[in-house]
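User: tokens in, sequence out, please.
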């Protein structure tokens, strides 16, 4: 796969996400298919980038921004559909964006090539989260499934399972713990990145003081 074809997939993913956002309030079928296809193209593009060694800093940044914006827009819609739970959706959005932004900024200052690079001497939870692709995929997919099921449940229960519960409701129950754990990981993310930024600040001040005294 050439670089131009990968860029086309990346831009197609963004276009599909925008279409999904536009129809989220009125047409859940179109919105859901576009949202899921956008996520599929993200996974395909990421796999191709790693396999062909075509990863770029711009691509990593664009991937990060698209992920965050897609989840944020879905949560904004859920806040509209479920106003009684608006605070929790707002908290989830804030935690997700703040933790990833600070970690990405910290990684850039430290000269790391990817926000997914974790020093093996760092936090063990984040180390497992980022170095184990099955764990990372399971957590991200479970989190997206939970919010997606909440979205679909506003319109339809889904096909019945054993004649007792709708499929979408069942999936929501099963993935709720995953979404909760991922929020906990985001909190750890934020704490670790904040500490790392503090370490960078101290190191820069010490270096500046040494240069001034020398």
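Assistant: Sequence out:
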């Amino acid at each position: 796969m050439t670089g131009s074809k990968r860029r086309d997939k990346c831009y197609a993913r963004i276009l599909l996400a925008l279409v999904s956002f536009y129809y989220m309030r009125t047409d859940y079928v179109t919105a859901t298919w576009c949202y899921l296809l956008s996520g599929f193209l993200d996974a395909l593009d990421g796999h191709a980038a790693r396999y062909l060694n075509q990863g770029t800093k711009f691509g990593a940044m664009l991937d990060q921004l698209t992920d965050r914006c897609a989840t944020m827009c879905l949560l904004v819609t859920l806040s509209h559909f479920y106003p009684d739970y608006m605070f929790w959706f707002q908290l989830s959005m804030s935690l997700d964006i703040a933790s990833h932004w600070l970690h990405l900024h910290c990684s850039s200052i430290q000269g790391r090539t990817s926000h997914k690079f974790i020093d093996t001497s760092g936090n063990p939870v984040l180390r497992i989260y980022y170095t184990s692709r099955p764990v990372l995929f399971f957590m991200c997919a479970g989190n997206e499934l939970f919010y997606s099921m909440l979205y679909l449940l506003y319109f339809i229960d889904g096909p019945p399972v054993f004649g007792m519960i709708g499929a979408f409701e069942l999936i929501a129950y099963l993935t709720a713990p995953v979404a909760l754990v991922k929020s906990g990981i985001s909190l750890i993310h934020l704490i670790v990145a904040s500490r790392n930024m503090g370490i960078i600040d101290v190191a820069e001040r010490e270096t500046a003081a040494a240069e001034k005294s020398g």
